[in-house]
Amino acid sequence: MALRRSVWVSFLPLLAIVAACVPQDNAPMAANTVSPAPAQQSMAAVAPPTSPTKITTDLTAPRSAVGTATYGCGNGSAITIQNLGSSLRVIGPDGATEEFVASPANQSSRYQEAATHNAIVIDGREALVMKRGSTPRTCRR
To answer: Among 94, 119, 127, 134, which residue's beta carbon has the most beta carbons within 10 A?
Structure first.
């Protein structure tokens, strides 16, 4: 009998707390309470979940976006590089324009000018400019 009384004594406060948390009919619900879940649909009517779409970036593919950036090359000189996708148009500090094609053709970081064999390597915010007969220089955006 003592055991039965101790169970009721420990269970009764718990029951009172639960009853206080359950809203009564026509009683307003608190703003932070969750509304009851909608009725569940049968499994036949529910479409199977689709797997997440996997996005693969091919870093060897030529860029398709055309963009222009100015790179400071030190000593106050700057070059402007316009990305044309599979080639670059470079405007030097003297205003001269050169066309560089991707070398090899299926990538988007190394470019070479065919006639002079000048080259540019783009690496993030840096461009390594290599001109025949002079020391390579690093230009930064």
So the answer is: 127
The greatest distance separating any two alpha carbons of the chain, rounded to the nearest whole angstrom, comes to 104
The pLDDT value recorded for residue 65 is 56
Residues in the chain predicted with pLDDT less than 50, given as ranges, are: 57-59, 61-63
Q: What is the pLDDT of residue 106?
A: 85
**Residues near 98 by Cβ (< 8 Å), separated by ≥ 6?**
89, 90, 92, 113, 116, 118
Measure the CA–CA gap between 135 and 46, rounded to whole angstroms.
67
> What whole-number distance in Å separates Cα of residue 8 and Cα of residue 6?
5
Check whether the bond before 104 is cis (ω within 30° of 0).
Answer: yes
Q: For residues 56, 62, 68 and 72, what is the CA-based torsion angle, rounded to 10 degrees?
A: 90
pTM: 0.51
Residue 85 DSSP label: S
Amino acid at 107: Q
